[in-house]
Amino acid sequence: MQPDWRQVQTQLKKMGHYLGAIDGIPGAVTKRAVKAFQKVAGLVEDGVVGRMTRSALAQFEPLLDHSITTAAELADLSYKVKKKGLSSVNKTLKEKFNIQIESQCPVKGVEAYMLSNRCLLVPGSNSVWDYAKFNFRLLNIGVPRLRFKSGEKGKTTTDSDGNIWHQGFFAHANHIGTWIGPNKANWPKLIIGHSLGAASAQFLSTIWLAPSIGFAAPRILKSSQSAQFRNLSLSICRKDDVVCRLPSGFDRIGSSRTLIHKSRKFGMNHKMSAYIDALENQASGLDIPDVWRPQG
Q1: Which of 133, 149, 188, 202 could form a cystine bridge with 120, CB 3.0-4.6 A?
Q2: Mean pLDDT, rounded, for 104-112
């Protein structure tokens, strides 16, 4: 059985073994990359993609490469579930990444998708209803505020931590946390979000102690003391995306990096397509990482 060399090159590139073009040609550069992978996987280093190497690639693929460009592509795909249907998106995920969506959040207005590689995708608002329900709910006036103790794995509590959290974003994240549940085996190993989903990713990263990558991330916290485990969450925000400056007086948790397109672009530049464009055409001197592997 002949391997799909484009797929093999893509997998090896995401793991850092292959540095050439994705051209489907099994030349010397590809063979060296295969050998490098075989060494890591404990296989015979012959450069041949046989049954055992294919099996090892399939096992290594779900280990998440934490690539920012891959995360951006997955975040963009997360919006297509509602537009094109689950089967269509799964077909793309299978062809490109050898993964698929295994489950989705059942709560109305809360879109979140767990992939077979334990990566959680959380797109932003997809309707006026969910935008109004979560984005405009800054404080719970007249009712108890949602609170949690940072770093208490898998739990949200009513303990006061001295922080004021954006209540709509917290509620959105809380729905996802309840859906995933307390079983650690079900917790994600990586969280990827955009906009409202990037706000939730900051919360969920703190609860599950899982790395998160958020694009176009709003601000979630008015703090009197620092949230713990700030190093786990990465927010990538275009300088010309006004959403990233909201709400005023609040902050993000974790690490924030500013993304600037090398050419001036008009408009809101908030959609994932705008972020993918800017990642591919970055201004020089930025500190956007290629991968995000924080230590928990």
Answers
A1: 188
A2: 94
